[in-house]
């Protein structure tokens, strides 16, 4: 279950993906499989090859991509890798907003 984001943030994420960028969206998240994780960052792109190449530089595997028919395929980033990637991508605003330090 996702919460803690505004509609305009979701729209912005989708528009960035549609524009050919790798886009980031962080939100609060509850999933029983990951009890101690409270947030997730979706790193998405419409071009799967672009997304794979982007993820490869962070050690992410192609099979971890959540492939979506609607064009908003993404990696779900949680835990240490989430923080590492947000820092590397200059997403300090999301780190601060969601207390990820």
UniProtKB/TrEMBL annotation:
This is Uncharacterized protein. It comes from Jeotgalibacillus salarius.
């Amino acid at each position: 279950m996702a919460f803690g984001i505004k509609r305009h943030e979701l729209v912005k994420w989708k528009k960035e993906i549609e524009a050919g960028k790798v886009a980031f969206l962080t939100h609060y998240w509850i999933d029983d499989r990951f009890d101690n994780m409270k947030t997730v960052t979706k790193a998405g792109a419409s071009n799967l090859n672009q997304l794979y190449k982007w993820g490869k530089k962070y050690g992410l595997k192609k099979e971890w991509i959540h492939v979506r028919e609607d064009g908003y395929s993404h990696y779900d980033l949680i835990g240490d890798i989430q923080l590492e990637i947000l820092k590397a991508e200059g997403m300090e605003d999301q780190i601060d907003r969601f207390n990820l330090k």
